[in-house]
Amino acid sequence: MAAKALHFDVGDYVVYPKHGVGRVIELQKQEIAGMQLELYVLRFEKERMTLRVPTNKAESVGMRKLSSDKTMREAMETLKGKPKVKRTMWSRRAQEYEAKINSGDLASIAEVVRDLFRADDQPEQSYSERQIFEGACSRLARELAAMEQIDEPAAQEKILEILRKAAAIYNKDKVPA
């Protein structure tokens, strides 16, 4: 059973669920275990990593083109929403957050960013919360940056600005006692 191959060209930005936004730098043919394979060679600049993905496996591993403008708008709207804080154990929430980030789904990543964001006037985050927040925010920012052809810090600032405005709205409800 051969999976239908997605087609990406050299120079295309793609999203690989576990690693975020990368760029197709080459199409390669290699013989592996006696079989001729055609591979996408992906470069992830931030991680200084190169990944080879068989063209016929690209879809099954979840590799995709950059999101549509509509999907990005929906993700940005998600950031404006009220943070949902679950009262479950941190280890369980951390697993859920990591699963959402690694799904590669922009809306899920935006939910993690929204839920873990802390405004300056809010209580400090734990180290592991901060790590997950920064990972999710970076993943979202890299896709936004690639789509809008801006650098990652500018995209990250755009995201943080939306989060600060939303926090100002939702934190008015909480008056310190």
From TrEMBL:
SUPFAM superfamilies: CarD-like. It comes from the Bacteria. GO terms for biological process: rRNA transcription. This is CarD family transcriptional regulator. Residues 7-117 form the CarD-like/TRCF RNAP-interacting domain. PANTHER family: RNA POLYMERASE-BINDING TRANSCRIPTION FACTOR CARD, TRANSCRIPTION FACTOR YDEB-RELATED.
